[in-house]
Amino acid sequence: MAASSGAAGVWFRKCLRLHDNEALVKACAFSEVVPFFILDPHFNRSAVGVNRFAFLLQSLQDLDAQLRLRGSRLLVFQGRPHEVLADLFNGKAGVRLSRLYFEKDTEPYARSRDVQVECLAKEHRVSIESFSGHTLLDIDATVANPKFKPPISMKSMQSIMTAAGPIRKPFDIPKIPPLNIEGFEVPKISNIYSEVPTSTGFPGGEQEALSRLRHVCADADYVCQFEKPKTASTGRPGCPWEPSTTGLSPYLKFGCLSVRTAWHAIDQCIRGKRHSEPPQSLHGQMLFREMFYLLGASVPNFDRNEGNSMCKPIPWGDNPVFLQAWQEGRTGYPFIDALMRQLNQTGYMHHLGRHAVACFLTRGDLWQSWTCGRDVFDKLLLDADWALNNGNWLWLAGVAPFSAPYFRIYDPCPGPNSSLNAEQTGEFVKHYVPELKGMPSKYLYKPWTAPLAEQKKAGCIIGQDYPKPIVDHKLAREENLARFKAALNGQVLPEKFGCATSDPGPMCSSLSKGRGKRAEVATLNTEPDERKQRRWGKGPKDDTLAGG
DNA sequence: GGATCCGTTGTAGCT
DNA sequence: AAGCTACAACGGATC
To answer: Where is the Photolyase/cryptochrome alpha/beta domain (predicted)?
Structure first.
């Protein structure tokens, strides 16, 4: 097989697709093409939840199947990329590459990996070419423009788009040369994880991605009327586990779906019709994605509390008990807990749900650093994306210049007028917090206010079958507002403002005596912590494209 | 340089 | 039911 001249390798990393794949197109100008993926131990079980890993493997399976339909196949190697690639450049494993093509990746880990790979290729006299494809803009080229300023508003983002000119059309799938090599199959999730995937709603892969996109675009009204704040954070009636949005974000994250293909498909839908506009429209969601990619690529320390021009210094607390309760959905706030349990179970959460839980963890209630929540999302979300995740957490923690004013705090018990779009049937909460199944809807979001008799009748004693609220929202909110304000003035408020205690004790809003006994565990950490529409739509799922 | 406006998605209470 | 106001009051952009 491998002729002496060597083959052209197509290294799939993101961009797990055949459509609109420039690296594939370029490689297929040669007669021998080796499509491959490297399972990098950097993305291991402690970094990636089982659901996202399963999604990745499904995507690889699909990619392999599509390649086989065309007489080729996907080789899956396991190991550190530079070691695997050294073997491929040397001609071990029955393959010898003399050229390497891949899509650029602007995440910090990917950049350092790729720099290493470029050196290696030079040593082996392997020619390398990479292409911008994961984003609408060429991120590096945009940032390199001397006039570039990090965009912190939709307005500035739109002017960057305008200056960049029209978005190029997707590439067609090229004719792919045959490949006959045995082995290097896509592994099974059970060979890698002892846990079993629990997410069923999002099968990975390009075919699923394209079919979802078709489904979304089949309903032009839906696309034309799409306004993010009007989509329901609590899923669809009858199926609270189903997103009320497009559900495309995991596919964009892995590049199962080309962002250009999606952009033009949506463009087709809205062209010549009355339609919603950025920032709330679907195109608007995609512009936020670009914005965060630009920020991630241009702002030093974008993922940190210190040295980050997009992050104001706030003396966040350090309370592992709070963090864990939040992470596991045991805060005693049913809406928050339902959302967090949904994340753990399914790897998905509506964008507005992310707002609710992120605000709750940070400036709203628990006063924990956004980086802690960021890490949880980074591991568990199917659509976890470095730039978007960091950008959204900065936004929600209120520390970024693009954040909403810090004093706008979400109520963790959203009522019918809440912008969080909680349904009032309680279907969503009851689905993910089944302890509360019997609770009358008037108490569902605040079950601790139910009289004991009602709690007994519902089979759910608060403090026993379901936790008491971990903090008193009203008080925590007040104190956090004061602390945030002080921090903006360069002050750290004295001890009496500590809202954090690891043992919330018998705390109901009606019982709480307030500040007196609450400060013992609270650590006002002055050292920055861096330890490490249609609302009820008929058809399609959709989701947060900006997805962080 | 000061005033004003605006920022994808706040909430509660009133009319 | 939609729209107003009070609440408390940031900071970047624009005039």
So the answer is: 6-136
